Amino acid sequence: MLKRKDYTAVFDASPDAMLVVDADGIVRDLNRQAVAMFGWSRDELEGTEVERLVPVASRGRHRQHRRRYGEAPEPRPMGEGLELEALRKDGTTIPVEISLSPSQLGPDREHVICAIRDISAWKRMRRLSGMMIAAAEQERKHLSRELHDEFLQNLVALKIRVKLLADEKDDRERENARARIADDIRGTILGVKRMIRGLLPPELDRGGLSSALGSVFRDIEDVYGFTVHASMGRVGGELDEVATLALYRIVQEAVSNAVRHAGVNEATVIFESSNGTVTATIRDEGCGFELPHADRLPGDACVGLAGMRERAALVGGKVVVQTSPGGGTMVRASVPAQSASGQLG
User: Fold this and answer.
1) Residues 163-184: tens digit of each pLDDT
2) What is the pTM of this model?
3) What percent of the chain has pLDDT over 90?
4) In the chain, N or C terminus with fewer CB closer than 10 Å?
5) CATH topology classification for 4-118
6) d(Cα 281, Cα 289) in Å, to the nearest integer?
7) How many angstroms separate the CA atoms of 69 and 99, rounded?
8) Nearest-CA neighbor of 324 among 279, 274, 285, 277?
């Protein structure tokens, strides 16, 4: 028999789930964290094979590994690069790290102490980091294309026209050329201002959320012929500056996605306020899309969706998306009036 009193204090104080497994792979003891992690009661797990906690497809391979380990047991720390999964009672799996430590807990048999750590949060953060890196790279590519395809080409054309203007002898033609150059300069200035608004919206400081988004929607209609039907109300005044910026970016991204991908020429944006929460609903009747599985990195078309969710989460809010191929898209972003972070980032 195991003398549980000899190790119970350390065993139950561990933040990780812990099992004591004998040489035959039978669970002889477990702590409270193991009960919470796996969903089985102590009575259900004690006396059963440890493979009960292993996904069915991996049980045969796990038995082989366990037997080989039993031939030459030695401490094995966590984090050795193994991608492991554990099975919960409800049939769901969780990614885990496992450390093994052989120990003589019984009077005549070797046992193995297994410490099991749920790394779901770590994997989510790693996946999110990949999404954010991809989003940042996508934004850099977008800026590079816009600078090259629009502004650089415009400047080159202006340089050529200025040279031609200097050589023009006819007064009327010279005046017409000068007017065309002035128009091109004004257009380039407007383009630069549009880019600046995309990077750092000064209207948020001057006129608030309604004014800043109104400017974005007008630019979108002027450039793309895409109409945004907006019902803003006065909700912007309730938000602190961090929540305001987060909601501005989320709406901007959602509308831009509709412009690029929906295959229609209009969308609606409706703001509502209730119980200290401001909600923006962006809806289009376009082609929709298939949402990626939560455990897979999305393609480029869905990187923006990951960014919207992250922005909302950083201020204590959330983003819900409803869409299907051919069924249009609805993005609903809710943020607290007073953000969770309280600082601009």
Assistant:
1) 888 888 888 888 888 888 888 8
2) 0.50
3) 31
4) N
5) Beta-Lactamase (3.30.450)
6) 18
7) 12
8) 285
